Amino acid sequence: MVNGSNGCRTEGPQVAKSLAGWYPARRGSIILRRHQADGLAVGLLGPALSPPCHSPCLLLALMLHHIQSEKLGPRGEAMAAAVGTCVHCGFCLPACPTYQELESEMDSPRGRILLMKSVLEGELDARDAAPHLDRCLGCLSCVTHCPSGVRYDELIPSYRAYAREHLPQPPAGLWTRVRRWLAHSTLPYPKRLRVALRLATWTRPLRCCVPRALRPMLELAPKTIPPAAVLPRQSRPQGPIRGRVALLAGCGQQVLAPEINQAAIRVLVRNGIEVLVPSNQGCCGALAWHGGYAPRAAAFAAAVLRAMPEDVDAYVTTAAGCGSTVKEYALVLAGSELEDAARQFSQRCMDISEYLHHVGIASPPPLAEPLRVAYQDACHLAHAQGIRQAPRALLQQIPRLELVDLADADTCCGSAGTYNIEHPEIAHRLGQRKVEAIRQSGAALVATGNIGCLVQMQQHLEKAGLDIPVLHTVQILDKAYRDRQL
Ligand code: SF4
Ligand code: SF4
Question: What's the gap in Å between 172 CA and the centre of ligand 2?
Fold first, then answer.
């Protein structure tokens, strides 16, 4: 008996066993080129499902699995449901940045889903699957492009959390472990991050003496670190109050670009919204959650839930990575006593652009001069939260601002949390592609909605010798309201 999509249970053990058994035996040899995998169900099964063979019974067979979700912990059901929904059609492949770069089926969404399925069924050693799963950016472009509604966004973090706790991990070198420890012990803590960035700035001239695994951290550290900023606990608008929100201030963003939250508060207040910034909220847990450190992510999430007041209209985030994580808190806290509270909390979370668009804003005064601005979709805004129109609509309210889309605007820029530290080569190539798209757009300014993308694009633009600033959408609105030069 095996499980199919939509929870149906179907007789078919021989088919499932043969499919699951086929892959591990050949895992080293199925590297497919992109042209081989275009279209329907080509790739892992090779000639068995090449385009002339669109047999419904074979496609049905591909949906089957025998994952015992009840044995996989509180997120087992989510993982089994995602695997069971995939019909292996391959429509997600062209949209996957790692597939575009590596042209390998195993580094595509479909390949990764089959890898996770095989591991969860006990047919494949997790260590063999790990390199391909580690290379996943978590950009969720595959979710947007999947016609079957596969919840890859629930599958990959749940799998990583399960694998980290229960499955053997591939060996990591000393300096790789040091790098991971450094990232997870500094990035979520603003004071520690500030010290670490200062040290990185001082050490950068000596980078040839630093172990290779640590060099990307030095290279990514900004040349200058803005002074620490303290956000007001409460900001009240003058005149009638149209709404009341609590701001999730984030962690790394407060060190790298504190002006984003300051701008958000000014824009909210300018539009009649009272803003609370609760103390002791800490990191939202995004870094830990996407890295598979579920208990740590749950502890961060619980602290956020405790810190946030009840009597607000919405919880507003200014970083897409944080926003997508807080909207997943029910999964982060699955199986705990806080799961229901987390679900309710998530339903009231909104990205700043989503909230401003929802309540409506006053039009800023015209810019002094016409300005062409390119909008880059942050993956965790566009793909994870489905927010594409709101930031564009807000920017289009600024007179004399010409908004243009980048080619491949919703393809990842290569930032992806700590991806540009863990996989600098792929991240670099994606960053270069984004720079080229910006150059071709003729834009004088780039707008985006996530601090990671902002830093990644800024650094690659500087490396390419292009003097094009990258700002958060809310910074552009703020400057327009205050008649500041953009
Ligand atoms: S994830 Fe979706 S688009 Fe990709 S192969 Fe599976 S069903 Fe098709
Ligand atoms: S999350 Fe992004 S990198 Fe990972 S499989 Fe999906 S599209 Fe590819």
Answer: 23
Task: Compute, in angstroms, the gap from residue 142 CA to the centroid of ligand 2.
Answer: 6
What is the tens place of the pLDDT at every residue in 15-34?
Answer: 233 333 333 333 333 333 33
Which numbered ligand comes closest to the C-alpha of 108? 2
Ligand 2 atom closest to Cα of 112? 5
The helix (run of H) or strand (run of E) holding residue 266 is helix 259-270
Residue with the smallest CA separation from ligand 2 atom 4 is: 136
Ligand 1, residue 90: give the atom nearest the CA. 5
Q: Cβ(86) to ligand 1 under 6 A?
A: yes
- Across the chain, mean pLDDT equals 87
91 lines ligand 1 (CB under 6 A): yes
Fold observed for domain 234-357: Rossmann fold (3.40.50)
Listed ranges 177-191, 335-349, 400-414; the one with the highest mean pLDDT: 335-349
Atom of ligand 2 nearest to the CA of 145: 7
Q: What is the pLDDT of residues 424-460, one digit of tens each?
A: 899 999 999 999 999 999 999 999 999 999 999 999 9
Element holding 346 (H helix, E strand): helix 339-347
Instruction: Determine the Cα angle at 427 with ends 422 and 429, to 5°.
Output: 145
SS3 at position 484: coil
Task: Compute, in angstroms, the gap from residue 360 CA to the centroid of ligand 1.
Answer: 37
pTM over 0.70: yes
DSSP 275: E
Tally of CA atoms within 13 A in the half-sphere of 398 that contains its CB: 27
3-state DSSP call for residue 317?
A: strand
Domain with CATH 3.40.50 in the chain: 234-357, 364-481
Q: Which atom of ligand 1 is nearest to the CA of 152?
A: 1
Task: Report, as an integer, the average pLDDT of 109-127.
Answer: 96
Nearest residue CA, atom 5 of ligand 2? 109
Q: Which residues does residue 3 pair with via DSSP β-bridges, in sequence order?
A: 9, 65
pLDDT at 209: 81
Q: For domain 2-166, which CATH number applies: 2.40.160, 1.25.40, 1.10.10, 1.10.1060? A: 1.10.1060
What residue type is 272 in one-letter code? Answer: G
Question: By C-alpha distance, which of 379, 393, 391, 403 is closest to 350?
Answer: 391
